[in-house]
Write a structure and sequence with these properties.
Order of helices and strands: EEEHEHEHHEEHEEEHEHHEEHH
Strand order of the largest sheet: 8-11-9-10-12
CATH superfamily: Spore Coat Polysaccharide Biosynthesis Protein SpsA, Chain A
Helix content: 25-40%
CATH architecture: Alpha-Beta Complex
Number of strands: 13
CATH class: Alpha Beta
Number of domains: 1
Strand content: 25-35%
CATH topology: Spore Coat Polysaccharide Biosynthesis Protein SpsA, Chain A
Distance between the termini: 55 Å
Shape: globular
Radius of gyration: 19 Å
Largest sheet: 5 strands, mixed, barrel
């Protein structure tokens, strides 16, 4: 299975401005968050991407994607009808192909020599099925993420056969319904902000649209797809930075700076800042 297309959602009320924010990359270049995300996906082999934006935001995003503009198709989500609806807006773009799905308000740093996106694409290509990137996450972060449970694929430490998917469960619900053997107590496999999905998910979203009411979420269709075909969770070797969280952009910027060649200078600056702050 080859994955050549990506869909990035940036139309949510709390997402519209975040991807446009500037950040200094690990190499010292000042770029927008969306441009950094596009750098990663195209370096990993993606050829074209659809960017789902709110009405009236296309020109702002056209200016923010930098040199990637020729590879981007901009799709406006006419109404804020949920994450699943935003993904469904790209169904003509993805067609019958498997595609990479990302959210526009996350940035990533890999712990390996391969980027987080490349790790996921290589896994999905090898396994020939849908794969959701996950990370073991403490229960205090459950309000921010969808979560899964599953069992390790024999012979692998980072692949799980998905058994259940819930959207932003409470710790009590997660403790009852999302047990994954081998995880530390109080930790759950939460979505990393990127998936490789097959056309099955698009078909399920289209079917769900008729009965969705005012909002179409993604998670129920992911869960239905996982029941109908092979769908794995892959524990990424890296970190995600949700720039929509409180101080999220600051955390992402610090992480980028500390991953670059000026790490010692940044650490010295932080020590000086702590020493002079109240």
């Amino acid at each position: 299975m080859k994955i050549h297309k990506a869909v990035i959602t940036a139309a949510g009320p709390d997402q519209r401005q975040l991807p446009l924010q500037s950040i200094v990359s690990a190499t010292g270049e000042s770029k927008t968050a969306i441009e950094l995300l596009l750098d990663e996906i195209f370096e990993a082999g993606i050829r074209n991407a659809a960017l789902i934006v709110a009405p009236g935001q296309t020109e702002a995003f056209r200016a923010a994607v930098g040199s990637h503009l020729p590879q981007i198709e901009f799709i406006e989500q006419a109404e804020p009808l949920g994450y699943g609806h935003a993904v469904l807006c790209a169904k003509d773009f993805t067609g019958d192909e498997a595609f990479l799905l990302l959210v526009g308000d996350h940035l990533y740093l890999s712990n390996r020599d391969r980027s987080c996106v490349r790790q996921l694409l290589e896994t999905a290509t090898r396994e020939k099925c849908s794969v959701s990137a996950v990370q073991a996450t403490r229960e205090g972060k459950l309000p921010y993420y969808g979560a899964v449970s599953g069992k390790n694929i024999p012979g692998s430490r980072d692949l799980y056969q998905i058994e259940n998917i819930l959207e932003k469960p409470t710790p009590t619900v997660a403790e009852q319904e999302l047990i994954t053997p081998g995880l530390r107590q109080g930790h759950y496999l939460c979505f990393f902000g990127m998936h490789v999905l097959t056309a099955t998910t698009m078909r399920l979203l289209e079917d769900a649209l008729e009965s969705s009411g005012k909002s179409l979420p993604l998670t129920p269709s992911l869960a239905a797809a996982a029941r109908s075909e092979r769908h794995l969770a892959f524990e990424i070797a890296g970190q995600r930075y949700n720039i929509g969280e409180a101080y999220g952009l600051l955390r992402a910027q610090l992480a980028m700076a500390l991953a670059g060649p000026q790490r010692d200078e940044i650490l010295t600056m932080l020590v000086e800042l702590m020493a002079t702050s109240r």
